[in-house]
Amino acid sequence: MRRLLFACAALPAMTLMLGGCRSAGGAPSVALEPGQYARAFDETKDLLASRQFTLERVDARGGIITTRPKATAGLATPWDTEQSSLRQEVEDLMNQQERRVRVVFTRAGDGGESIGDGERAPDLRDAAGPIEARFEVTVLRVSVPGGRIESSVILMSTRTRDPELARRGVGGRDRIAISTDDALASRLAQALRERLAHSRSELSQR
Questions:
Q1: Which residues contact 4 (CB under 8 A, 6 or more apart)?
Q2: 189 vs 183: CA distance, rounded Å
Q3: Domain range list for the chain
Q4: What is this structure's pTM?
């Protein structure tokens, strides 16, 4: 409730600061040159960590990186960079939402499916040809059991408590995948392109 009051008071200033939206930056995939996989994999880990995502699975053999869900409060957390538009800022403010990132590296022409989930799958680190990195972002909405949203005055929303569920230890929060965030996926892919281009530039100057 305090978060909502703060954001409503700061909305005009926040709108000016956002300047409309953040650029999506093209496709959510990055074409890697032969021999570039190791560098791209490490840069992807650093990129996600720099955006305060906590890495959950890091599989260089199979070519998969996933993160734990990262919460954001939209306009109430202006330091977050997940949102690509003012609409997303407001949606994340009004709802408890999180984002999970999954990056899949595949050999070019493999149809976009990871080849590293099986024990006998070939090691992607040994691949000699071109590889593609594809970013996927899932938006999760957190639901709290017993929440009752007041449609006319949201600040009057309440929460009920079921004694029977509490006695059995049932409760907590549920995460429901509601959409994909293609704009953020595209921006992350663009950030990886820029990092790789910078790395190539540094190597050429040595």
A1: 76, 93, 94, 154, 155
A2: 10
A3: 2-204
A4: 0.74
